[in-house]
Amino acid sequence: MGTATSSMAAKFAFFPPNPPSYNITVDEASGKMRFSDVNYQRDNVDVLKLSTKRGNEIVAMYVKNPSASLTVLYSHGNAADIGQMYHIFTELSVHLNVNLMGYDYSGYGQSSGKPSEQDTYADIEAAYKCLEEMYGIKQQDTILYGQSVGSGPALELAIRLPHLRAVILHSPILSGLRVMYPVKRTLWFDIYKNIDKIPLVDCPVLVIHGTEDEVVNFSHGKQLWELCKEKYEPLWLKGGNHCDLELYPEYLRHLRKFISAIEKLQRPHDALDLIPKDQTEQASNNATEQSKEKSRPSIDYREKGRPSFGHREKSRLSTDSRDKARASIDKREKSRKSIDRSFKARNSTDHSERARNSFDRLGDMVRSVGLCNVDCLKQTAAEV
Q1: Where is region (Disordered) located (predicted)?
Q2: Does the bond joining 268 to the residue before it have cis omega, within 30 degrees of 0?
Q3: Could you tell me the residue ranges of all domains in the chain?
């Protein structure tokens, strides 16, 4: 029974697009690798092939943003590869003002091998090693982003990086088996045991989940957030399903707010009151009500200073002090001004119209890709 269930869990976890959405060519003039099936390719994107410790060669892409101080390592969801994610990655790099590396798991896209839990751990390790050795990115300046099944490799790496800046979990899973069965304890043959790993993450964690997720129940994101050691105010998107959260304007707004807060941390463990105690309790209560009644939580988005993490001494960071900190850190201020100039240069139209158009462009990309990150899970569970 255990062996059969383990095989089923492994089977459900991986749905690489077939055929892959892209091929790789080499530009004769520059000698750089490119995706042959991607329109409007960017000059600031490097296409790479990386060797993993399990003997596979995976494909990655690195989006360079000259004004960025932080780098996002993005682990995508199921039924997608980085050819499909190309334009979403490049847009996120611009709107969040970050460098961004995305990679394909073994057996996905043009990556060699077959996907497995252990291979995805080796895959993200190879991608992170590339960031360190090729681009000089430090873990203090790295944010791990795990979407759906990608929350598994993201959290596995997070617990091994003591100075990591932050983690973002997008429609995450408690574990592979828990997506299909409401088990109460972790079984040895389960995969991606995120429920056991999240309490070991020492950096701030943002959780994003749709309240109407029909693939990975909203309770997964809620419980992971409750188990976080250093919580950032979560984003519970009312009516959001598993594959459409990028369509909500709140998605980009909340990510920008999170990145801005994380940039203010001078060191990974500097104190930053990411969410007050009363707000934490309110968000948890609202999430519980949502899960039962499917109503939108009333989340207070104010950032108040209050020590709330562990037993370490924390410094207070109110709205006024955040302004002072921003003014006192010249490097951050120059970076912010550079971002403003970059956005103005990209579009000279009215600011509100420009923002609306940017959300529309990202939404159009999500619609055109038709991403579903753990497609067929409910069907698989029903057939067993």
Answers
A1: 274-356
A2: no
A3: 24-263
Tell me the per-residue pLDDT of 9-60, one tens digit each, with 9 for 90 and over.
Answer: 555 578 999 999 999 999 888 889 999 988 888 989 999 999 999 999 999 9
Residue 244 to residue 13: CA distance in whole angstroms:
20
DSSP string, 251-310: HHHHHHHHHHHHHT-SSTTS----S-HHHHHHHHHHHHHHHHH---------------ST
Question: For residue 28, what is the DSSP state?
Answer: T
CB-based burial label for 181 (10 Å; 0-12, 13-18, 19+): middle
CB 67 within 8 A of CB 97: yes
The residue assigned the tokens 């994107």 is 45
**Quick one: tokens of 73?**
């390592």
Question: What's the residue count for the chain?
Answer: 384
Written as one letter, the residue type at 188 is W
Sequence-distant (≥ 6) Cβ neighbours of residue 79 within 8 angstroms: 15, 16, 17, 371, 372, 373, 374, 375
**pTM of this prediction?**
0.73
Query: How many Å apart are CA 219 and CA 231, to the nearest integer?
Result: 16
Q: Work out the number of other CB atoms within 10 angstroms of the CB of residue 340.
A: 12
Q: Within 13 Å and on the Cβ side, how many CA atoms surround 22?
A: 28
The rounded distance, in Å, linking the Cα atoms of 190 and 186 is 7
Yes or no: say if 37 and 22 are a contact pair by the CB < 8 Å rule. Answer: yes
Handedness of CA 294, 300, 303, 304 (dihedral sign): negative
Judge whether 60 and 103 are in contact, CB under 8 Å: yes
Q: Provide CB contacts within 8 A for 8, sequence distance 6+.
A: 380, 384
- The CATH-assigned architecture of domain 24-263 is 3-Layer(aba) Sandwich (3.40)
Q: Catalytic residue numbers?
A: 148, 213, 242
What integer is the mean pLDDT of 245-272?
Answer: 84
Cα–Cα distances in Å, from 296 out to 18, 162, 238, 274, 275? 37, 35, 5, 21, 19
SS3 361: helix
Q: How far apart are CA 242 and CA 15, in angstroms?
A: 15
* Distance, CA of 225 to CA of 266 (rounded, Å): 24
Least Cα distance to 296 among 381, 204, 212, 375 occurs for: 212
Question: Tokens at residue 75, please?
Answer: 């682990």
